[in-house]
Design brief:
alpha+beta, Peptide Deformylase, 3 helices
């Protein structure tokens, strides 16, 4: 289901709780909402659709990638970025890393480790910030 985008900064600043297998439907709503906003959006976190759970979906080189309970373990190559967000007006500066190693769970809640680079890494960092209640 396509959901409305939350713009309430007080709500968005609250850290999200861990996702569980009961939250799989939220991931589908995230995917549907990202697809509906694909012209101007490359990632979403569950709190952006009103659900305080640690679930993100990102455009990974044209395919949707869902990460449950993502956590950055290692990062390298810091740089300054300028980012926009569906929940916020305009663009803002953000410190990002060119390469990140992430531990997350897939839709079967199996733990995965993966290193992401470049644009995908930047999107994941933005969405994990949302899970942590951090806004750009």
């Amino acid at each position: 289901m396509i959901r409305d985008i939350v713009k309430d900064e007080a709500f968005l600043r609250q850290p999200s709780a861990a996702a569980t297998p009961a939250d799989v439907e939220v991931a589908q709503d995230l995917c549907d909402t990202l697809a509906a906003n694909a012209a101007h959006c490359v990632g979403l976190a569950a709190n952006m659709i009103g659900v305080q759970k640690r679930i993100i979906v990102v455009d990974d080189e044209g395919a949707q990638l869902v990460l449950f309970n993502p956590e950055i373990l290692k990062c390298s190559g810091p740089f300054q970025a300028e980012e926009g967000c569906l929940s916020l007006a305009g663009t803002r500066p953000a410190k990002r890393y060119k390469s990140i190693k992430v531990r997350y769970q897939n839709s079967g809640f199996q733990v995965r480790l993966k290193t992401f680079k470049g644009w995908t890494a930047q999107i994941i960092q933005h969405e994990i910030d949302h899970c942590n209640g951090i806004l750009i």
